[in-house]
Amino acid sequence: MFSFRNDYSELCHENILKKLAENNHAQFDGYSDDVASKRVISQLKTILDNQDVDIHFLSGGTQTNLVAISTILKPYQGVIAADTGHIATHETGAIEATGHKVITVKAENGKIKPYMIKSVIDEHYSDDSREHATQPAMVYISNPTELGTVYTRDELADLKTICKAYDIPLYMDGARLAQVLANKDTNISLKDLPNLCDLFYIGGTKNGALFGECLVISNENYKKDFRYNLKQRGALLAKGFSISLQYEALFEDDLYIKLGAKSNKNAKYIADELKKLNIKFLVPVESNQLFPILDNKLIEKLRKEYLFYTWQIIDENNSAVRLCISWDTPNEIVKKFIEDVKKYI
Amino acid sequence: MFSFRNDYSELCHENILKKLAENNHAQFDGYSDDVASKRVISQLKTILDNQDVDIHFLSGGTQTNLVAISTILKPYQGVIAADTGHIATHETGAIEATGHKVITVKAENGKIKPYMIKSVIDEHYSDDSREHATQPAMVYISNPTELGTVYTRDELADLKTICKAYDIPLYMDGARLAQVLANKDTNISLKDLPNLCDLFYIGGTKNGALFGECLVISNENYKKDFRYNLKQRGALLAKGFSISLQYEALFEDDLYIKLGAKSNKNAKYIADELKKLNIKFLVPVESNQLFPILDNKLIEKLRKEYLFYTWQIIDENNSAVRLCISWDTPNEIVKKFIEDVKKYI
Amino acid sequence: MFSFRNDYSELCHENILKKLAENNHAQFDGYSDDVASKRVISQLKTILDNQDVDIHFLSGGTQTNLVAISTILKPYQGVIAADTGHIATHETGAIEATGHKVITVKAENGKIKPYMIKSVIDEHYSDDSREHATQPAMVYISNPTELGTVYTRDELADLKTICKAYDIPLYMDGARLAQVLANKDTNISLKDLPNLCDLFYIGGTKNGALFGECLVISNENYKKDFRYNLKQRGALLAKGFSISLQYEALFEDDLYIKLGAKSNKNAKYIADELKKLNIKFLVPVESNQLFPILDNKLIEKLRKEYLFYTWQIIDENNSAVRLCISWDTPNEIVKKFIEDVKKYI
Amino acid sequence: MFSFRNDYSELCHENILKKLAENNHAQFDGYSDDVASKRVISQLKTILDNQDVDIHFLSGGTQTNLVAISTILKPYQGVIAADTGHIATHETGAIEATGHKVITVKAENGKIKPYMIKSVIDEHYSDDSREHATQPAMVYISNPTELGTVYTRDELADLKTICKAYDIPLYMDGARLAQVLANKDTNISLKDLPNLCDLFYIGGTKNGALFGECLVISNENYKKDFRYNLKQRGALLAKGFSISLQYEALFEDDLYIKLGAKSNKNAKYIADELKKLNIKFLVPVESNQLFPILDNKLIEKLRKEYLFYTWQIIDENNSAVRLCISWDTPNEIVKKFIEDVKKYI
To answer: What chain A residue is nearest to B34 in terms of C-alpha separation?
Structure first.
């Protein structure tokens, strides 16, 4: 039985354990104030081509989102997100628990467009009694989106432009950022991101780390006293070095992007082969998640050997399923999967 | 330079990395719903001699405290804690950020006594206008305390009795629980704890884990829907198995208690030797933290080779310092430290 | 210039000021613990035909909603509401500020139907990973709705039945409850409400009081320690008697329902007359708010003598406007308004 | 039976009811955006001799405190208050419910001194790991204090100076501000206050209003979007004019200060007479609250005719009681009270 359920099903890349072993029994200061974390932050600043960003290490994605968003918003402000966005649907009201409304817009293939932001904000301020509604005050996107689609560099730039026009920040959830960076069609490299976003995170958990996310703050307004926020939300790990050392391993020899590329490639292989079989997709395949629309009988047969989620019922006979390809998914497995589809179809 | 600053300065015990390596490339379900986590939970229930407890894995201590406390309290309720308690002093208002007051009592050597609880609650309910003040509704202790002192089994039982009399739960922060279990004077074993506390956690970060804490809920009232709370606060790790596997290693062959015993023993060695030199202590030495009162000139000399915190200024010439002995502190270092003290005194 | 903008444009009914004057210079205990409040509560219990309800006086509607809802929900729970509901659209995220998501359903003419509740809850619990989303745990309705439509007794009973089946409470915002009680088609009297709702409020501000709302709690689970919640949210007025005395006036000689009937009648008069002129309405007219769809040129002319809000643009030439008829709107004004419409049309 | 329990036991001054009656049946816009509120705000700006302040009307003291404080603080910041302060002791954790710690200092006769503020802040920032504790970021005082003592103009100026040095705002709770203004020893007039405080409120509830408080914001930083905060916390009354009209009455012909002076004078009369009888006081009598230390037998006898609170047990035979003199307390009553004391002593 092989699982296509998640890209966080396996512990971590070999180099991570190797890096930890090499540094074992050394002594480090607590709370990310140690030499290893400082070294890794310095390396990341070089990779980001920006010496002014602030960099923090957190333990998971929901935590990173809630700390980042609650840092920025005033009590009566809310964050604009896609109706399919992770903070709107899959974080148990984590943002609301910090006191803020998630203001949803109907997304297209999981993506927010500038006109949607404009519409929400214009409507808010056109109202006579604006203080009677939550003030829209930042934009949350994830790249790739919940549906595996990606924003290109131009699309990000357009979002940033509209945000800037309204003087609100753009925050990008990069839980699967590796797949964006590895997809050349996006034309995005890490060094573009501090200019395109006010804050974003470089996801570790879903791309080979044991655990951990790396938050980058480029907007000067949100840097001050950020460690207070981290500590208050339980996000300032005593052994910060246990995360930063993993990032050192992930960014040696481009490992981070290579792992993203591998999962993208295997996803594309499956997509291309399924298309040859005239199988349609719910949304375009642009990263490591695919949503093919399959005959329910085929699904039933595949389930005997593969684990995956049903995403959406399409009609009486067909459903869209989600296949999530991991950095660790062997090439042979994706080949076997296609052979099995051909066999069962 | 050797650091006595913390017991979380080193990555982790060898067995942890070994356990992770052994399990690498296996596939696990997400969010602690995997076979490894289930197996470890089953082992821990046996060790706790209680099949009814619920067990959850979290990433750090502040997170565990804030999730546990916010689970229990209604909006207008507060938690009673020592004025020196971690949640009162060193968590940046994490409890208040979930909406609740920390009601402090003046502790004795870091410890809360039953009469203090009685006094706070009686005073609250004797008032004509009780709804004008925060309702005291649970008790937080840490064992060992912030000052390294420990509650014995009898003392815990007395706290539990008074809590039960008032129908409020007792929650124990066990960040350094290994040192309590390893201190035979406490007469506490793990299997006592589900009866003595309504919730408690078995700390990993400070006793050899890479990161992670293990929360045990024995009171039936607080079990339902607890995973919602975990998720909402960013505490439900996608790779829950990355923590549970560490606990498997920690509880094989009594490693957890052995590491606690080692740090206790080294702390006791230093304490005994310093006492021979007529050095006094701020509070009795009962676990792996010591607070000797040293001459400032001696402190200055020791700082050339050792890192440690000044805890409290005693008088013009003397200060209490904190020495925190780790599970990984070599025996040779504590011997050398005593030799250096003798040399410099 | 006459304003049809709101039903809270005039200070209060004469009897309110009379009642206050009669009781001036008497001494009352603070925080609603006085003889007047006790007497009024006793009268209201008789009117509600229920000696077991708890009754509290608050200063406004948003306050009442946020106190009631935050009393009931656990941190990870949310409240189901119409997408047009007041708490979803016009309270500046007041519910989110207490930590809770408002889970919206697409309403029909402003009303929630049992199947909508069923759908939200079934979907939540059918999901494998339910703890990844906010748990739907209570239902908020307002009667009349934001669009002036009303729930009948049978409709309320159906909502209560589905809530009971899922073991979640039904809370009714009665800011304009007088208009429901005065509309005989609803078949609702005050004494039905403790059985039909777990909590509800009898609105004062919009029906002749100077200010104030009266919350009734019939579900035993939410009564305990409710005054703590009131105090914490700034809703326990020092001079509670300044509200309860107003309710005494409002419920003498059926004044409350008479005022509701008067505004309903004037609204119906306008509706009937406009229908004769072939004017359509956005939603059926069932209480004191009307949403006629008018030609923009007519709107322009009417604005010279009347104040009212444009509610929705229908097409290039027509808009729905909102006319809100107050308890204090003179009969002559509504007649004059119709004459003016006839003149300008 | 006469009550000395509170200064909010009586409905309101005649002029308030008169003012309301005069304005009845007029139409006003909602949410304090009406002509009456604008007129009163303009009058108050003239009285405050400051055209730049923002003025808002709220319904009660706890509400005003929680809105003002939660407006200013970032999530990880706390407010410094006297350990006897209202927000620390008598508001059911209202500030904590908005997410913020109340950082208490041991007050002298209810008053905070500049050195206390300095000490809290210096200690916070001297710590290596300041982000591990709540950041002290504003100062709350009430004038008069909970013990009826008053801050003079010089004392306020000193507090403001230290706050300014640390770049944090000073907020003054003026629930009983009339008594400060009426006490010439304070040398404070209303027009001093915008310079001495960043925010303060002019209390109505305890000085003759039916209900209501008036918040003045002089610091530019806290003005923007304040109405959003009001609305979100349930503090933006639909009929804002029901409060502002009361303030119009209170500030006509100096009524506000006259009422304060009357209660001060009656309090002073009692104090002077009791002193002649060698009765001691818990703290100096400086406003309308007195805390005489009386023999328990005398207390028992007085309780047959007067209601008042026991404040503190002094020894086996004596207790400090609180007498609170209202704007409406008749002169004859205070005379009779003294006669009764003389009779019973």
So the answer is: A9
